[in-house]
Amino acid sequence: MKRSSESGMSVIVRTVTCVAAIPVIIFGLYVIMHGHLTPGGGFAGGAIIATMTALFIVAEGGDAADRLGRGMLLTAESAGLVLFALLAFLGLRTTFFYNFLANSGSIFGTQVPFGPNPGYLETAGVIPLMNLVVGLEVFAALSLVVIFMFSYRREEQ
Amino acid sequence: MISLPFLAVMVIISIGLSAVIFRRNLVKIVMGTSIVASAINLFIVSLGYREGGVAPIFTGAPTLEMVLPTPQALTLTSIVIDLAVTAMMLSFAIIIYKHYGSLDSRKRRLRE
Amino acid sequence: MSFIVEHGPALAIAVPLMAAFATPLISRAGGRARNGVALLALLLTECILVLLFADVLSSGVRVYTMGATIPSLTSPVGYPIRIILEVDAMSALMALVSVTIALAVCIYSMRFMRSRDGMGYYYALLLMITVGMLGIVMTGDLFNMFVFLEILSISSGAIIAFYVNRGEASEAAFKYAVISAAGALMVLLAVCFLYGQYNLLNIGALAGVMQFTFLDKIALVLLVSAFALKCGAVPLHMWVSDAYSEAPAPISAALVVISQASLYALFRVCFTLFGAMPVIGVIGWFIIGLGVLSMFIGVTMAIPQHDIKRLMAYHAVSQTGYILLGLGVGLAVLGNAEAIGSFGIKAMEGAIFHMVNNALFKGLLFLTAGAIIYRTGTRDLNKLGGLAHAMPVTTCFFIIGMLSIAGLPPFNGFSSKILIYESVFMFSPVLSIIAILVSILTLASFVKVFQSAFLGPKRREYKDVKEVPVAMLIAMGILAFFIILFGLLPDLAVQWLIEPAAKALLSQLNYVGAIV
């Protein structure tokens, strides 16, 4: 495999990064989805997935930051934020941010039994949806921060 | 007898604050702010500690004596805010380096 | 209508928030769509806040619990358990002022910054600044106030550095960001001290159970210092001149109201949270000291400046000193019911009125400075001259702002300054004389600016300078209209707007009683 730039790390590092991407992203998605049962949630899971962007840039060299799709990440970030505010607005018949899906029988609305239990995924109403949306937004935003900071390095040489 | 987490918080705040006040390099000032923020996060979490309590998660909890969960929510918010502030200050340091050629805070162009 | 009033506090924060989130997506559809959405969001927020203000005047404190089954269910188990927004007359007045200035800034920016890149982010940040200001003034929860304070600091820090092609803007923004972060972390430390002792974060609930131990006094000192740092009181004013002068001109006008949001937080903490403390008069004297220092040092540092925006920034420090003086007098006599009735409440009315007026005339002055920069391209007073021939309307607005800031009738600066002079004179004559002296120096400094920039013969290099476009004149006209209105009808303004706000600050029991 021929490298496209002078910088970047060796073949071993790049291959292991590609292989390690899969468990990291799956772990990040797990943390996002189980935010209402175990510690973590939207922000922590999104940050875990965003480390893959940073790892990719470190492994391929700083020039790789220009090849990553910024437009899609900007759209994903704004879409995540708009969906979050929309979910908060949807409870406005009662109050702003009201959890209108909890204990209601629809998508995430099962009743939770009191006390220690093994943890049921379809509970907690609008919270897992907000976790998903926040996770998408945080991943996009942190990836953009890393990409934009790397894009400044070429102009100093 | 002062409790150990609070003593550690005081020490770390003073280290971070002395970095912000006495260092000239812009990146070290940013690091100092981040250190102070981490110390305050430690302080918030340690406020909720109860003797013999477990993590406040109902999933598979061994007993019902738990530490307070509200400080943990406050700490999560504070971590996110500090991340945003640090990212923004580092971006400013990058732009200043691009225009001024140095990260020394004494080489400034805005004067009285 | 009653739906809007009942959900008013949450809607007033949520509408600009949603618009701020949607702006980067909408700006792909073009610049006009984005400008329209921002303007529409701010107009909608202004309407909601006017309705909310009318409701608060008639029926008292309005409480909103986020996420409960009914909005007024604050304490279902005996103590408050969710984030509660609590709007009394002072909050509603500050919110109205904030959104009016933000609206004028938005209209002005539509023309001033038309031909630049990245305007989607500019409007998103402007809407986030509005959200931050409205959040600070309308929340009833201390940690929520910290979060909105940080939202405001981050958004305003980012927008100060908007001109990335100049290194000076980033340097000013770096200084602003470090100092704002330090102040906000001090606020967080104080909030955590209070939380660790009483296990409560709600301002009303804390005011009810506070026992003024030594740790509470440390928290009070941290809060007062942090909010004084954020509003630019001397000796914590080092960021003001850089940040105001390097920001884009409409944002300098908005920075005045941003500093006043922290001033509101200072008074909410001093009067409502710690108002029943026996030694609160000491804090009052401290704030009077800060006020006198700010007034004097602000105006003396403004006189030798030759950069027009830096000069106006130092005057902003000076005017903040007036507000601190008036409210410090009110705080110093808080335990003395007879002094409160005779001059204490008048001092507070003067200070709150001066907050409103300061936002208006300082905003107008920064917008006229922006108009000068837009047409001539320079900020240096040594190079300007003779602009009154070519820009008559801008000159007229500048004269209105100049006479207003100096405290001359019939403009609104006189109305609020006379209240401050009279009441502070009854408290201590020396302070009142210092305040009048500072007004004279302010007038001297602005006469210098007027003469340098506008009077004199037309200069050769500015011969094709015309008047500024209509959108910028409309924005300046809105502010000038309110200046003249409050100057000609001060009694109505005090009776309907200011006196309920001052009374709401003094009556701590109403605020506490709405929660528990």
Give your account of this protein's structure.
The complex is a heterotrimer of chains A (157), B (112) and C (516). Chain A is built from four helices and no strands. With 157 residues, chain A is mostly helical. Chain A has one domain. The relative contact order of chain A is 0.18. Chain B has a domain at 25-50 and 63-101. Chain B has three helices and no strands. Chain B has helices at residues 4-22, 26-47, 70-100. The radius of gyration of chain B is 19 Å and the shape is elongated. With 516 residues, chain C is mostly helical. Chain C has one domain. Helix content of chain C is 76%, strand content 2%. In chain C, helix 2 (8-26) runs antiparallel to helix 5 and helix 4 packs across helix 19. The longest helix of chain C has 40 residues, at 337-376. The radius of gyration of chain C is 22 Å and the shape is globular. The model of chain C has no long low-confidence stretch (mean pLDDT 91). Classes of the chains: A mainly alpha (157), B mainly alpha (112), C mainly alpha (516). Chains in contact: A-B, A-C, B-C.
Distance between the termini of chain C: 27 Å
Stretches of chain C where pLDDT is under 50 for at least 5 consecutive residues are none
Whole-number count of domains of chain C:
1
- How many individual β-strands of chain A? 0
* Sequence of strands across the biggest β-sheet of chain C: 1-2
N-to-C series of helices and strands of chain A: HHHH
DSSP strand content of chain A = under 5%
- Dominant shape of chain C: globular
**Helical proportion of chain C?**
over 70%
